[in-house]
Amino acid sequence: MRKLLVIGIGAGNPEHMTVQAINALNRADVLLIPTKGDEKAFLADARREICDRFLTNPACRIHDYAVPVRRADGSYEDGVQDWHRAIAAVYERTLVNEVGEDETLGLLVWGDPMLYDSTLRIVEHVRAAGRVAFETEVIPGITSVQALCASHGIALNRIGLPVQITTGRRLSEGWPEGTRDALVMLDGVQAFRTVEDAEADIWWGAYLGTPHEILLSGKLAEIAQTISDTRRDAREKHGWIMDTYLIRRPATESEEGAA
């Protein structure tokens, strides 16, 4: 039976590759590298650098594919579902046409496949269609959450207190209930500017793990504009941006007592 390896490759630094991920890379007969246009060519180049550095299987075939564009009209959920089905069609065609019955296809996933990445859901679309049989194995990777905390030298959580990992879209709708700490990913709307708390701290990072990495931290109210300006300038320079940040609000007396 065909096999599908979903390999977490880390947040951008080739040295984030684990021994397990390197071994999985070399078990693949075919590797798929997504391309997202000139603006995000770095993401494809980073995957190729990983292959150049760690791939020792000379028989492995590498195929690029253009990532379908997600439509912006209609509801967000419908747009995402249509986008996932389009990518699933690429995976299915590759399994059927490029991968032999006893061969293995490898997908190189930025960060970790379990955290704000849809590869595993897309794979299930392929499985549900029932046109090709395959086994799946998932290899974990270092996430931007880990890279952010390591680069800033901080712990993700405070003792006894929860952290919610969320998106910029959700944060812009209001602060999450039940926590004073929010780790925000996929923020295209600069939702940190909606947080009105003079005592809140922020640890922000962009291009984590890459040579372009940028780090800023301090009181949110004091550096929000600096982050916005830095973000804008970096996007203009590189043509794209991926950033992650942790906002920590002061705990209440009852929360500190419970902790």
Structure notes:
A 5-stranded parallel beta sheet has the order 3-2-4-1-5, with helices on both faces. Strands 6-7-10-8-9 form a 5-stranded mixed beta sheet, with helices on both faces. It has 8 helices and 10 strands. 36% of the residues lie in helices and 22% in strands. The longest helix has 22 residues, at 76-97. It has 259 residues and is an alpha/beta fold. It has 2 domains: 2-142, Tetrapyrrole methylase, N-terminal domain (Cobalt-precorrin-4 Transmethylase, domain 1, 3-Layer(aba) Sandwich); 145-258, Tetrapyrrole methylase, C-terminal domain (Methyltransferase, Cobalt-precorrin-4 Transmethylase, Domain 2, 2-Layer Sandwich).
Number of strands: 10
Overall shape: it is globular
How much of the sequence lies in strands comes to: 15-25%
Helix content: 25-40%
Instruction: Give the full name of the CATH homologous superfamily of the largest domain.
Output: Tetrapyrrole methylase, N-terminal domain
**Low-pLDDT segments:** none
The figure for the number of domains is 2
Total count of helical runs of at least 4 residues: 8
| Cα radius of gyration in angstroms | 20 Å
**CATH structural fold name of the largest domain:** Cobalt-precorrin-4 Transmethylase, domain 1
Order of strands in the sheet with most strands: 3-2-4-1-5
- Structural class comes to alpha/beta
Q: What is the averaged pLDDT score?
A: 94
- Specify the biggest β-sheet: 5 strands, parallel
**Distance between the first and last residues' Cα:** 51 Å
CATH class identity of the largest domain: Alpha Beta
* CATH architecture name of the largest domain: 3-Layer(aba) Sandwich
